[in-house]
């Protein structure tokens, strides 16, 4: 009887175990270009934007009480870029089972926004531009995560810490922008 049940289950879904085995064959190191690429985008954006130099308009401006210490931002962003790279890798792994062109194109546009963030913000030196760029990034991040979820639940879960950070930083930057100091 048990043998019959197992055979019936195999007859209903013969490909699922094979698909899982095939997905597991991807070596972890194939994720490295995705992770390092995302980290590189963040580093280049900061370097080109002048984030490693003192920005008086930003540094000397009073911040709201929820504002974390300045060292938290680059630390969290490194983690975010690692998770974004892993999420992108997860989507890329499904390329032979489903079309991943749209989710990866949306992610590329989002990464382009992240790359342009610091150069644009530090060029204009205005709180309003900072907040606008954060709001665009938040909606872009939500769109990217939604597209990733349509391909891989794991990739969407990997994007959640990043989305939480985007919500938090957008919130504190709106508070900062609304300050009259």
Secondary structure: elements and pairs:
Elements: H1 2-12, H2 16-24, H3 32-49, H4 56-59, H5 72-93, H6 101-124, H7 127-149, H8 153-178
Helix pairs in contact: 3-5, 3-6, 5-8, 6-7, 7-8
One letter per element, helices H and strands E, the order comes to HHHHHHHH
Overall average pLDDT: 88
- Rg, please? 21 Å
- Please estimate the helix content: over 70%
Question: In terms of per-residue confidence, which ranges show pLDDT below 50 for 5 or more consecutive residues?
Answer: 4-19
Structural category = mainly alpha
- State the distance separating the first and last CA atoms: 77 Å
Total count of helical runs of at least 4 residues: 8
User: Judging from the principal axes of the Cα atoms, what is the shape?
Assistant: elongated
The total beta strand count reads: 0
Q: What percentage of amino acids are in beta strands? A: under 5%
The major beta sheet can be summarized as:
none
Explained architecture:
The protein is an all-alpha fold. The protein has a domain at 32-43 and 70-181. Helix content is 76%, strand content 0%. It has helices at residues 2-12, 16-24, 32-49, 56-59, 72-93, 101-124, 127-149, 153-178. Helix 3 (32-49) runs antiparallel to helix 5 (72-93), helix 3 runs parallel beside helix 6 (101-124) and helix 5 (72-93) runs antiparallel to helix 8 (153-178). It is elongated, with a radius of gyration of 21 Å.
